[in-house]
Every structure is written in C-alpha cells, then in structure tokens.
Amino acid sequence: MTQLFFEILSPLPLTRRLDARKLFAVWRDAAPDTLPDRIGSHEPLRLDFSIDDLESAFSIWEYHVLLKRVAKPKLTSSIFMQYGPHRRHSTWSISVADRNHVDMRSMENLISASSVEFSADFGFVHSPNHFDIDVGLATETVAFLDAKRSKKSLFLTTHVLNKYLPDIYWITVFGKPYVDLFSRGRLLSAPAFQVRELSNGSILMKLFEDISSCEEMDYEKRKREVKQHISASAFFDLSKATSYIYSAPEFFWGDIEQ
Q1: Which of 112, 98, 90, 95 is nearest to 198 (CA)?
Q2: pTM of the model
C-alpha cells in the first residue's frame, strides 16, 4: 500500500462553527468519496460523523479535531486550530492508507478549493518515496511509524516554514507569502508539468501529471530543476551547513474570532 498525504497551513484561526461548516462543505464538494465517518478529540474515535449532521463536530470544535474513515478509502484526518498567545498556522491534514483507493482528481480539487477558502500559506498532496526520505528525516517532516518502516507520516509545521521550505511535492500550493517572496512570474514559469494560478492569487504547481511518476528517476531531476528555478536559497539542502540561513517569508495572521 502507498500512503497519500494532504495538508494545508492556514493563517486563519479556524475556531468558529462557521469555519467548521466551510471546511466540511469544501470536503463534501471537492472529494465526497473521502468524507469521514468517525469524529472525536482523542483516540479511539467513538462519535459517528455525517456530513448531513454537523452537531458532533460542533460539540468538540475547539483546539483540535480528529476524524477517521473506516470504509475504503481508509483515512485519518486532523484539524489543529490556532489558540493561545503564540501565533502559528492552523493545519488540516489527511492521511490516506492506500492512494490506489482515491481518485487523485478529487485530491487536486480538495487542495485547490481548501487553499482558496482558508487562504493557505502553503499546501501539498504527496506520497513520500525513497527519494524523499533523507530530506524528510533531516527536516523532521517525514517519520516512520513502525519498526518495519512500512508506515510513514508527512507533516509540516510553522516552525519548519519559518526556517525553510523542506521540499517540493507532487502538488504544492504557494500562498501569498511565497508569491511575494519569489514573484508570481518566477513561480508560474517553473519547469513543472503544470503551474496555474488559483482564484485567490495562490499558485498551484504539479510536478507530473501522474503521481506515480514521482517514484521514477526523473523525479529527482525535476525536483532539483524546480527548486533551483524558484530559489536555491529557500529550499532545505542536505549539502549546506546547519548554520545556513535560508530565505523564508514573513507570515501574517488572521484575527482571532470566536
């Protein structure tokens, strides 16, 4: 089985019921085949979830929410919201157990729609493979969840983005801070399979038409070319000293609303 990971990092708090309604509406419209059927604030998830009745979500919509889909495609999801005095991104992540059970067009629709709806500063859809492991482990964005190294996690935080961009992914969304840092023209002219502007001005970049191409030798070459085109000083580089200071944008946070 090949895992698939989705994540957006939003500068908005996402603490309101309205945010919950928006998130599940985006999920329903963009990727209805991946909607969860369990919800809770901690494992095991005991509450049933239905897109037609959001009361179970509203009752626990504070700080973080965990979701699960037991039916195929099996997946887990988490929403971490901003709270407290230290500003950081709210995150929405999804981990699919087997990407072969998911329509990849729906995942592209989901990353596009959610990045616009929640003004994501960064987002991605990716299946990490052996080409990604060294950088992923060095940046602490990839981890192994079992001794056999058969289960992985891929997750980005504000702490990482404040230092560098850890990598480029099958689909990467660059929000306003990165458009301002790199320039719209430079991002749109990157040597990827597809680069397009979303309705809010963010840039979606797709390395290959098919995600399975990320497991072939051309993947490393394409990643290297794209990174060098965008900015060699912004992406983490294993060959650079730990003291190297990378280019990173300034993030601006949305107002906290209850």
Answers
A1: 112
A2: 0.96
